[in-house]
Amino acid sequence: MTAPPRDDGAPAFATTALPHLDEVARFARWLVRDSADADDLVQETYLKALRAWHTFRPGSDCRAWLFTICRNAHISRLRRGERVEVMDDPDLETLASVETFRRAVHVGMDNAFGSFDLRDDIQRELASLPDDFREVVALVDLNDMSYEDAARILAIPPGTLRSRLYRARRILQDRLLRHAQDRGFGPRPTITSERGDA
Amino acid sequence: MMHHVDCETALRELWAFLDEELTVDNRAAIQQHLEHCHHCRPIVAFHRAFLQALERVGTMPVSQSLRQQVLDTLQREGLQDPRTTP
Q: Cβ contact (<8 Å) for A172 and B73?
């Protein structure tokens, strides 16, 4: 199948969609734990996008369009296990993350995120998050997407997006602080809260 | 509109503030609170540093081989090589 010709002045696929390849690849990498599968997902995403290019509305957000295709392709490939449902109030979840800060202060780790290179730990802990949590972090934190756009891509209400995002961040904070302490950056961990960590 | 912001209100909106998801008025109200609140400022700094650490992971480069694979796939599908497209 060949991409339908565009004769209406619409932006060309190569100059509009391809520049987002890095972002789509990073998003796919966080959706799929295996890097080879992630590369396959990127190729599938771009193939589907090319075939559906005639449906893309010129002037709309091409990155969000590609992310939606990527995520839908991922879901259709995957026999998903039971998904994590987060029903909590996002405001309460935010206040709970303040408790993480207080525990960090208590163990002398309140400067940990700014002081140490935690990239390897972050990658490892992101990969181990449940799918529902990992994909919100990938969209909002790694691809700088707005809550509204991310919720639209994931087809979830904005409140659910916020709950998942804030919960995911708190889980990551707790785990990263523990890693930092394990490396000897501070006293032994007393951080135990991972409520909802499936 | 948030006229007066206390610590609990500011911290409840902590993530939305850092994500720049608040209205201009609400953001300004929290910003004003933070400028004077020694209690909330280090909490915001802690969470901001965490988000910056995440951002550094998000900017990792994608391999050249993947880029070439995608281009090869698309060209087999009929896409012109963007490097030769005027």
A: no
Q: Please tell me the distance from the alpha carbon of residue B14 to that of residue A161, in angstroms, as a whole number.
A: 16
Q: Is the pTM of this model over 0.80?
A: no
Contacts of B14 in chain A (CB under 8 A): 94, 97-98
The tokens describing A119, both together, are 């990239």
pLDDT in tens, A110-159: 888 888 788 888 888 888 888 889 999 999 998 889 999 999 999 999 99
Which B residues in the span 45-74 are in contact with A, Cβ-Cβ below 8 Å? Answer: 45-47, 49-58, 60-62, 66-67, 69-71, 73-74
Instruction: Provide the sign of the torsion angle of the four alpha carbons A22, B14, A153, A38, taken in this order.
Output: positive
Give A15's contacts (C-beta < 8 A, 6+ positions apart).
Answer: B82, B85
